[in-house]
Amino acid sequence: MALPKLSNITYELELPSTGEPIKYRPFLVKEQKTLMIAQESDDTKAIENAFAQIISDCTMGELNAYDLPMFDVEYVFLQMRGKS
Fold it and tell me: CB within 10 Å: which end of the chain, N or C, has fewer?
């Protein structure tokens, strides 16, 4: 028997650069742990990859952080962080 899949509440935001609506969920403890591990490593590439992965996971794959302008990445991350 498989474990039950927990559903997370989703929100919608508008990307500042394009005005495109994006659905997202707040990031979870596992994403916060990933970010903390990357921060402790003092490796900027690891931190960059952690941010990109968190944004991709929390937007259900709708966004690729590497394709966005930096102000959109910051905006999306702050919105995800503010709802948790």
Answer: N
Token pair for residue 71? 């102000």
Residue type, 56: S
User: First-to-last CA distance in the chain?
Assistant: 30
Helix, strand, coil shares of the chain, percent, nearest 5, are: 50, 10, 40
Cα-to-chain-centroid distance, residue 76: 7
Dist. CA 21–CA 4, nearest whole Å: 29
Q: Cβ distance 76 to 23 under 8 Å? A: no
Burial of 70 (0-12, 13-18, 19+ CB in 10 A): exposed
Separation of alpha carbons 4 and 41, rounded Å:
34
Which pLDDT belongs to residue 62?
Answer: 92
